[in-house]
Each structure stands twice: as C-alpha cells, then as structure tokens.
Amino acid sequence: MHASAKLKIAITGNIGAGKSLACEYLINKGYKVLFADIIAKKIMSSDIHVISQIKENFGEKSYTEGELNTAYLADEVFSDPSNVALINSIVHPVVIKEIQTKFKRLLHTRNVVFVEAALIFEAGMENLFDYVLLIDADEQVRFSRLQERNNMEYDDFRKIEDSQLPVEMKKEKSHFTIHNNGTPEALTAELDLILNKILPK
User: Fold this and answer.
1) Alpha-carbon torsion angle 180, 183, 189, 195, nearest 10
2) pLDDT tens sequence across 113-145
3) CA distance readout (Å), 185 to 136, 138, 165, 181
4) Residue 1's pLDDT band (boundaries 50, 70, 90)?
5) Under 8 Å between Cβ of 130 and 8
6) Eight-class DSSP state of 108
7) What are phi and psi of 61, to 5 degrees?
8) How much is the pLDDT for 181?
9) Any bridge partners for residue 12, and if so which?
C-alpha cells in the first residue's frame, strides 16, 4: 500500500465475537474508530424522516416521551425476519451517508479510519472500505460471553444470530479473519499482525 494512501477499514463480526475489544485496543493505540451502532441510534433519535418511518411501521410505542424505546423496538424487529429487513431499509441508507460524510472530514487529517459494524455485509456497505476484517469465535464461546456480560437468554441470542448472514459467508467476503476463541492478548496480537500488513508505513 502506498504511503500516502488513505485507508477505510471495517471491523465486523457477529455478537460476542470480540469487535468491541478489538476497537478498544485500536482507540488506545490512537486510531479513530467510528461505531455504526452509535451512529444508527443517533439517527433514529434525531432524524425526523427516520423517526416518522419507524413510528409508521412499528407503532408509536417505538418512542417514549421522545426517546427511542430500544427494548420495544428490538422485540418488534427480531420477532419477524421481514421486520429486520424493514428497519434496515429505513436506517442503513442514512447510516451509510453519515459514515461517508465522516470519512471525508476525518481523512483530511488521518491516514486511516476504522468503522465497527456488525452488519457490514447485510447493509451492503462493504464497498465503502479498502479492507474488511472479520472477527469470529465459535457460537458457544460467543453465547457464553454474552451470558456473562449481558445475562442474555439463548432465545434472544438465536434471534439476533438468525437475522444476520451466516459467518461462513462473511468469511468469504472479508479480506482477513481473526478467530477469537482465546485470550484478549491473542486477539490483539493477531490484529497487530494484520495492521502491519495493511497500514501505510
């Protein structure tokens, strides 16, 4: 990669894989990381057109006293695969536009920007990036982490899993895959190896 290249790198993976840990490490190393989930929640709380579409499709209960009712909306969305597609069709185009705007601003002063997003491929945003890095772990390992971290029930875990593309398909579409069944140190060591290959020297 040419030394003057400006890189856009996606960090993706299913829930419990270790995306947040990887991104925390990148932030501590001084890199800029955008979180698609945070951008999406901000848009769902502030974009009048998006709010109107969500209320129209999922009911007024989607918002309580002007605040996004995430528990209600999650129940509605994950109860039906067609609802997942519907919410994504409302939110993802606006998220993509916002990420592109942030890229233009941030890459004036930086050589690389990372974006953490579980739904890179589901949102069809892989073409925004120079590299997509998938973090994966065995399903049981991921569920155990989520049980420990969030007291997540297996049914809820399965609903989220089933709403996303199979991991094997994501592996085929990604430039790099880190298998993260082990320690945080093993994850960050593998991440460093990949960064050494792709970041401008």
Assistant:
1) 40
2) 999 999 999 999 999 999 999 999 999 999 999
3) 15, 18, 28, 11
4) very low
5) yes
6) T
7) -65, -10
8) 95
9) 134
User: Which CATH fold would you assign to the domain 7-198?
Assistant: Rossmann fold (3.40.50)
**Which residues partner with 115 through β-bridges?**
10, 34
Which one-letter amino acid corresponds to residue 123? A
Q: Does the predicted model carry a pTM greater than 0.85?
A: yes
CA dist 115 and 199 (Å) reads 15
Helices (H) and strands (E) in the chain, counts: 9, 7
DSSP 8-66: EEEEE-STTSSHHHHHHHHHHTT-EEEEHHHHHHHHHHH-HHHHHHHHHHH-GGGEETT
Beta-carbon-side half-sphere exposure of residue 64 (alpha carbons within 13 Å): 5
- What confidence score (pLDDT) does residue 42 get? 96
pLDDT of residue 163: 86
What is the percent of the chain with per-residue pLDDT over 70, rounded to a whole number? 98
Burial 73-97 (b: 16+ CB within 10 A, else e): beebbbeeeebbebbbebbbebbbe
- Going from N- to C-terminal start, the domains of the chain cover 7-198
